[in-house]
Amino acid sequence: MPDVDKGTVRITDIGPPHYEDFLPPIIKRNYGKWLYHEILKPGVMVHVSESGEKLYTVRVGSTRIVSSDFVREISDLADKYCGGYLKFTTRNNLEFLLDKEENIEPLIKEVQALGFPVGGIDHSLGNIVHTQGWLHCHTSASYASGVVKALMDEFYDYFVSDKLPAKVRMAFACCLNMCGSVGASDIAIVGMHRRPPRVMADRVKDLCEIPSTIAACPVDAVRPKTIDGKPSVEIDEDRCVYCGNCYTVCPALPIADPLNDGVAIFIGGKVSNARTKPTFSKLVVPWLPNNPPRWPEVIEAVRTILEAYKEGARKGERVAEWIDRIGWPKFFKITGFEFTKYHIDDFRIR
Amino acid sequence: MTDEQKQKIKEFVVNLVKEYHGKKRFKPQDLEKEVEQNFQSENITRKDAKAAIKELTDNGELIYGYAGGSFLTLPEDQTQ
Amino acid sequence: MAGVRGYGGGIVGRFSDEPDEYPGVKEYHTARLNQIEGFFYTSDVLRKLADICDEHAGGLFNFHGSTGDIQILGFKQEEAEELFQKCTHLGFDLGGSGSALRTPSCCVGPARCEWATYDTLHITDNLTREFQNEMHRPTFNYKFKIKCAGCPNDCIASGARSDLSIVGVWKANIRIDQKEVAEYAKKFDIKKYVVDKCPTHCMDYTDGKLTIDDSNCVKCMHCINSMPKALRPGLEKGAQIRIGAKVPMVQDPRLGFILIPFYDVNKDKEEDYAFLKDLIQKIWDFWDEYGTNRERVGELIQRVGVGNFLEAIGLDPLPEMVEYPRANPFIKFEEYLVPDDEEEGKEG
Predict the structure, then answer these.
(1) Could you count the other beta carbons within 10 Å of the beta carbon of residue C180?
(2) Does residue C293 sit at the B interface (CB-CB below 8 Å)?
């Protein structure tokens, strides 16, 4: 094949555009020279440089999934208020960077008119990071975007204010592979399969390569088996960890299951080193149903956690620190969550 | 590695993939290890193997597939 | 299959289970594009990406995926090559997927944060360019993630998920502005909310003066987070390198451990990060040699033992690397002495 497609040179292996070309001039002038920052109000902060220059940040709760029209709308706002520059955050927020304080309020008005909240800084509920979910992942046990939308609608007030004891970082992964690395969040919601993949025995031979299907299983739960005279596979349900790898390789082993899929809630993880070491989130609710479009059971469970935390934690205490102080028995007592045998870790690779 | 050696390695790799087509999926590092072993007497290194394989994928003689792990296969393999 | 010629990753194939019923989404592939470091963009480049997405894909994006890439959603294989070439002509290349390096990512760093102890954007950009081949042509056992956080607050969550995590730290004393401490004292109880919460109790606030015994400071950031105008990280800035964090599959999530307690990243920057690149290469060589399919480097290290891993990559064991020394007595000594008569007996 020639390296010229449609009259242009085929370009590969160039890496990303260079970041220096995308920094607002005020940032270029003060790169590495920032002295301190202050939070002016929920969602708005100012960074002050050694040179005395001030950079105002307005943080806007965006979504992970956005349309090209949305991209154009925010580009127009960036042109109008920020010289055409804008940035995103690791939690799918959008940040407008202003060098003029008087632009803050007009910008906020326009952002809110588009339907987006300003907040997510300091002692607030941050934007929920999430994975792909039903929208375009084949092993997802839940919707991701849909649950996140329902949750953020419900807890909107915690995003636009700073009335929680400390920051609360929430995350959603649509299956236990946890692509979003949600496992170190104050509140982590994880899509759960309860039933191992079903074997569509009559289709395995036509749709799948049996050796690679067997090799795809990380716990050796998939074995060859002749069913009704046709080469197929069987799944050792005791060994299966619901990772979905076999389904990735073999479409005749579907794992998604409306009857059995749902979500679990883990809490008390953190990544920052402040005061206490980073730690993973721990199980509090092993399974709740997928109940679209508003997921009321999930919302109630999260409300119970947030209210107990708000009530019980001291100022500045993250969820993990609060529970460390009061102990898990007390946590289960005040929240009323049932403690079951599933809460006790019995997982061993066999 | 001389151009002549590189050509020999490329032929070796393509033949190996052809021979085992439908029976075994070679990860790139499997092929690198095979090259290393087969051309041991000619002081061919892993780096050389990587360079030869890169030429094969760049010009489309081999393509990458993914099934829980990346592997190399023939362009006509559309099983995925 | 979904992909572009020569690359083994960057495009994730999605095929509908019911193509006849939903022909429009029979193929619904995703392209991962390397994000701009720090997630900085201009309206101009965003509009051009939106045009590409509308023309060749489903008009949907992720800004950004969990790893950090921009994702363009919903295109057919027949569009892949042209979409890819339009992106590269705009300056964007594909990210990693499959058994390959993932697009490295970083926090906002010195671009807008006073706490960054090194240039997270520069190092991430540099490594991304250096390892194009490892990202685009999968030759690893499984994925490998590199993430760079400018300070121990770790806003990029590197310590909980990256195989190689770089987190900024410092050596010299925390810089104190007593005048600003006094200002904070008017707003809240410094003893209660700052001093008493210090994990090593190395602070004191008496008679309106804040003192810190920096020799006992573990660089947790709590006091600095609480009073950003009064306290600043110390000079002699560098970073800590951690290794082996990962998500659950298949043997539980793992936070990794400290490999290099103090990496002089600012000096290494002047040498094009030669030390770091050499270290990463040694880790990859070890993983390539001893790892098995779908085994993350952290799992391999646990399987073969941290001691053996350290020997292989040429690092000495340090107390910083462990939570605490071993509690069990099953030490496998590598050498033992043999009495002379036994030696002679053998020889005889």
Answers:
(1) 16
(2) yes
Phi then psi for residue C7, to 5 deg, are -100, 145
Chain C touched by A50 (CB under 8 Å): no
Annotate A76-119 with DSSP letters as a single string: HHHHHHHTTEEEE-TTSEEEEEES-GGGHHHHHHHHHHTT--B-
Q: Where are the alpha helices (DSSP H) in chain C?
A: 43-56, 77-90, 120-130, 132-136, 178-187, 190-193, 222-226, 265-270, 274-290, 297-304, 306-313, 340-347
**Which amino acid is present at A303?**
R
Does ipTM surpass 0.95 in this model? Answer: no
Q: Using DSSP bridges, classify how beta strands C146-149 and C105-106 pair: parallel, antiparallel or unpaired.
A: parallel
Of A316, A301, A312, give the one whose Cα is nearest residue A267. A301
Share in percent of chain A as helix, strand, coil (round to 5): 35, 25, 45
Question: Closest Cα of chain A to C335: distance in Å?
Answer: 32
Do the chains contact at B79 and A209, CB–CB below 8 Å? yes
Give the Cα separation of C72 and C64 in Å (integer): 10
The packing angle between helices B3-19 and B28-38, to 10°, is 120
pLDDT 10s per residue in chain A (350 long)? 344 455 568 999 999 999 999 999 999 999 999 999 999 999 999 999 999 999 999 999 999 999 999 999 999 999 999 999 999 999 999 999 999 999 999 999 999 999 999 999 999 999 999 999 998 888 999 999 999 999 999 999 999 999 999 999 999 999 988 887 788 999 999 999 999 999 999 899 888 989 889 988 988 999 999 998 899 999 999 999 999 989 988 999 999 999 999 999 999 999 999 999 999 999 999 999 999 999 999 999 999 999 999 999 999 999 999 999 999 999 999 999 999 999 999 887 76
**Helical pair C274-290 and C306-313, crossing angle rounded to 10 deg:** 130
The closest alpha carbon to A248, from A153, A175, A328, A350, belongs to A175
In angstroms and rounded to an integer, the radius of gyration of the C-alpha atoms of chain B is 12
C27 contacts on A by Cβ (under 8 Å):
none
Query: Please, which residues bridge with residue A94 across strands?
Result: A60, A88
In sequence order, the 6+-apart residues with CB closer than 8 A to the CB of C21 are none
C-facing residues of A in 141-170 (CB < 8 A) are none
Counting Cβ atoms within 10 Å, is residue C265 exposed (0-12), middle (13-18) or buried (19+)? Answer: buried
Q: Does B37 touch chain C (CB under 8 A)?
A: no
Nearest to C293 among B27, B32, B50 (CB): B27
Nearest beta carbon to residue A78 from set C36, C43, C157:
C43
Pairing of strands A85-88, A65-67: unpaired
Q: What are phi and psi of C79, to 5 degrees?
A: -90, -15
Report the gap between the CA of C139 and the closest CA in chain B (Å): 5
pTM of the model: 0.93
The DSSP string of C68-120 is: S-EEEEEE-HHHHHHHHHHHHHHT--B---SSSBPPPEE--GGGT-TT-SS-H
